[in-house]
Amino acid sequence: MHNEHPQKLEAALYVVATPIGNLRDITLRALDVLAAADVVAAEDTRNTAHLLTHHGIGANRLMAAHQHNERGAAEKIIALLRAGQSVAFVTDAGTPAISDPGALLVQAVRAAGLRAIPVPGANAAVAALSVSGLAAPHFLFYGFLPGKAAARRAALESLRGQAATLVFYEAPHRIVECAADLCAVLGGERQIVLAREITKLFETLHACPLRDAGAWLEADGNRQRGEFVVLVSGAEPQQGLTAEARRILETLLGELPLKQAVQLAAQIGGGSRNELYQLALQIKKPP
Question: pTM of this prediction?
Fold first, then answer.
């Protein structure tokens, strides 16, 4: 049973991370805030009532705040904050406003000159990344790709050159076609990690080359169930000079002495001065 006499909170919006599956994946601070808040704004009040009851917290202070009423809920919450009330905001799972409702609410609260306070905790993308084995020093969290195939491929095309690990969320009914598009656009050699049902009973983590992901998913219908985090290794760094760097150097060599052309080409187009210098010597070499 949680503390029945929690300390009074200051009037602010507390953005509270909740479990993504296992109900014990919640911080002590989050429980304190949920117990002490004057109002708990929830994406689904039924789900949150279950969470609160499980942890011995009264569920009689709930109000709905989801993607379909977020703007209206924001106005009510701002009025509560201005009246000196504290409001804890939670979504169904994980950290609010990360591919979930909450961003518009926080934006409105901050625009009103009121405080939004993070209460960090579970996040599916970070949890999956931590056990993925993909060792790139950077990652790019994209969230959900577009549902339509053409738009999804266009989005992936814009990410093709990213060296960072790419992190997506995907729904079960689109996971097979998503894997196919990832392979078609990014190439079958890249590594993919499919993290399914993180922290839940049927948690699965599968790594393979992208070219094999579709076959693995289709080999067992159960592998297509649940919520997915999809991680894909980034693009290999390009070796040598880019075509644009070469074009800039060739243009400058037509107007300037060799050393000055190399110096300016490096400043404008990037690339190794040494490689640019060697290329300039080749270009200038008599036939």
Answer: 0.80
